[in-house]
Design a protein that fits this description.
single chain; alpha/beta; Rossmann fold; seven-stranded mixed beta sheet; 7 strands; 43% helix; 25% strand; globular; binds S-adenosylmethionine
């Protein structure tokens, strides 16, 4: 989906009201959306979750790349963004749009009778959500991924790396300059040993 004035206005207004919640002044560019899709193996994915869909800057590209029949769940905690998504994507097959908190990922999947997922695409602004919330979400994301599943996230600063490494192995990190602001895209797999993740969580 190309960025529209409605997306730009929504993002800017959301930023003025709750900057920590959105962490951006503009929706992501198509270059960033494409780089995210290059990082995630969607051909092999039967179930995909997007966290922090906003008005769909990444979702549009995601829906172009998913295999027919794959189920997609997109989650955002902002009611206005979800209303826009519902209007735009109504009737899209195998897509569920959920107004919810990414911290509740395990419950959201359970309520929707979805087991583990093959890919999680995240645009959440971890730097502004704070360490506690970030760890809560990353821990849930690592728990619900299949062993070969990928977690792909973009960030505007390299600060997330250390926290990410508590839950995931980072397979690659690439910078996309054609976005405002430029962003780093991380591609990760969950650490195999759940105990190791839990121990790290307890130490922190
Ligand atoms: C940087 S914007 C990304 C929007 C869009 N995906 C893009 O790339 O332009 C971050 C989005 O995360 C959402 N968000 C923030 N905290 C959240 C949470 N705990 N659970 C779900 N969504 C959240 C915000 O409402 C916002 O739409």
């Amino acid at each position: 989906m190309a960025r529209t004035w409605q997306d730009i206005l929504h993002t800017f207004e959301h930023f003025l009201k709750a900057p920590h919640e959105i962490g951006a002044v503009l929706p992501s560019s198509r270059f960033l959306a494409r780089r995210m899709m290059k990082a995630v193996d969607l051909k092999q994915a039967n179930s995909i979750v997007e966290l922090g869909a906003g008005t769909g800057a990444i979702t549009g590209e995601l829906l172009l790349h998913v295999s027919p029949g794959a189920s997609v769940v997109i989650i955002d905690s902002n009611p206005e963004a979800v209303a826009i998504l519902n209007r735009r994507l109504a009737g899209q097959k195998n897509l569920r749009i959920i107004l919810g908190d990414a911290r509740e990922l395990r419950n959201i999947l359970k309520e929707n009778q979805i087991g583990n997922v093959d890919a999680i695409v995240s645009s959440l602004p971890y730097a502004s959500l704070g360490e506690g919330t970030t760890r809560h979400i990353l821990s849930a994301a690592a728990d619900v991924l299949t062993p070969q599943g990928h977690f792909v996230a973009f960030q505007y600063t390299p600060l997330l790396r250390k926290t990410l490494e508590a839950y995931f192995e980072i397979q690659s990190s690439e910078v996309e300059l054609r976005n405002f602001p430029p962003a780093v895209v991380y591609r990760c797999v969950a650490k195999e040993n759940k105990k190791e993740r839990l121990n790290l969580k307890n130490i922190a």
